[in-house]
């Protein structure tokens, strides 16, 4: 097995799950020769009571936004969405809301898998030709935080 690799990346394995136009066979390539561009996930429905949690925004600010939506009286429920690394944060926010309400709020969680697309653009477009794309799966959680109907 004789693979040509760049000297500075001898410990990096070759990646073979990249495709040019989607119909071409897998291509062996050196990841150092490409720039990875992660596309945003497809847009989920955006309602006023949807909160998309990420790891860049301050946790307290995201928690305060959720509390404001619930305490404003306009919404009896909110949906908290987390993708990948933000799943733990989404769960933590939902649990903080529930404990802060002294048990008045209930939670209902659903998980899903989201397909994401990454683009690989060659560092030197003259040598390598066209950009490549890769699809990958990432876990997601959707937590409904709501006041139960009084009986």
Written account of the structure:
By secondary structure, the protein is α+β, with helices and mostly antiparallel strands. Helices cover 21% and strands 36% of the residues. The chain has 3 helices and 7 strands; from the N terminus they run ββββαβαβαβ. It has a 5-stranded mixed β-sheet with strand order 3-6-7-5-4. A two-stranded antiparallel sheet has the order 1-2. Helix 1 (59-71) packs across helix 2. It starts with 14 loop residues before the first strand and ends in a 5-residue tail after the last strand.
Brief characterization of the structure:
The protein is built from three helices and seven strands. By secondary structure, it is of the alpha+beta class. Helix 1 links the parallel strand 4 and strand 5 (77-83).
Short descriptors:
five-stranded mixed sheet, 151 residues, 21% helix, disordered N terminus, 3 helices, alpha+beta, two-stranded antiparallel ribbon, single chain, elongated
Number of helices: 3
Shape: elongated
Q: Could you list the spans in which at least 5 consecutive residues all have pLDDT below 50?
A: 1-19, 21-25
Task: State the secondary-structure class.
Answer: alpha+beta
What fraction, in percent, of the residue positions are helical?
A: 10-25%
How far is the first residue's CA from the last residue's CA? 71 Å
Number of strands: 7
Nearest-integer average pLDDT: 78
List the helices and strands and how they pair.
Blueprint: E1 15-18, E2 27-29, E3 34-38, E4 50-53, H1 59-71, E5 77-83, H2 87-100, E6 106-122, H3 125-128, E7 132-146
Parallel strand pairs: 4-5
Antiparallel strand pairs: 1-2, 3-6, 5-7, 6-7
Helix pairs in contact: 1-2
């Amino acid at each position: 097995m004789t693979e040509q690799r760049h000297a500075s990346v001898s410990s990096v394995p070759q990646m073979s799950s990249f495709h040019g136009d989607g119909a071409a066979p897998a291509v062996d390539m050196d990841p150092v020769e490409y720039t990875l561009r992660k596309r945003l996930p497809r847009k989920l429905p955006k309602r006023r009571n949807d909160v998309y949690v990420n790891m860049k925004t301050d946790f307290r600010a995201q928690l305060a936004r959720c509390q404001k939506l619930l305490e404003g009286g306009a919404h009896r429920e909110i949906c908290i969405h987390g993708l990948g690394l933000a799943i733990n944060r989404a769960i933590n926010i939902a649990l903080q809301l529930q404990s802060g309400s002294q048990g008045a709020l209930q939670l209902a969680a659903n998980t899903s898998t989201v397909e994401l697309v990454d683009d690989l653009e060659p560092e030197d477009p003259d040598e390598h030709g066209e950009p490549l794309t890769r699809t990958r799966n990432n876990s997601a959680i959707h937590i409904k935080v709501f006041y139960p109907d009084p009986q």
